[in-house]
Amino acid sequence: MYCPDCGQPVNAESHFCEQCGAPLQASERRAAPPMRLHADVPEPYEQASSVRMRNRMQDPYKDQIAQLRLQIKQLKLDLKHITTNMSNTRAQYNQTATFVPRGLLRHGYKMIEDFRLLGPQQQKQQLQQEILNLEQELLGLQQAQAQWKAQRY
Fold it and tell me: Residue 29 to residues 3, 18, 22, 86, 133: CA-CA distances in angstroms?
């Protein structure tokens, strides 16, 4: 017979383990020692490691969440690039606008600036909407993952 706590051999008539002092009941005594994955790794670490590995391998949301995060990062970088280009365009017009006479000519000059920024502004709004949609999808996946984890424990 073996102790259910430490796995050491015990006498069948014993009521306590001689190694760890755990109380032994007839129903708890085992016919064989507990299975160990690695003999050199202490059992609590072994169990925690196998639980973590099992959870990591079976988490159906992990890869989707990681992929969405990467997509969001890429879109945010694209958004920064567009915003930087728009700022450079505005700065260029602001620097040269001082040399354009006031009145109708300056108004036309401002319209040209607005026209040049129209396309990038639309791209910026589209990217912001895509980011918002992906972040909502990510939040939904994270909530589903949290529920899945709560059900497992």
Answer: 6, 13, 11, 75, 57
- Note the pLDDT tens digit of each residue in 50-80: 555 555 558 889 999 999 999 999 999 999 9
Q: Would you say residue 15 lies in a domain? A: no
CA nearest to 4, candidates 32, 37, 44, 42: 32
Query: 8: helix, coil or strand?
Result: coil
pTM of the model: 0.56
Nearest to 148 by CA among 60, 52, 54: 60
Residue numbers of the domain that contains 103? 62-152
Number of domains in the chain: 1
Q: How far apart are CA 8 and CA 47, in angstroms?
A: 18
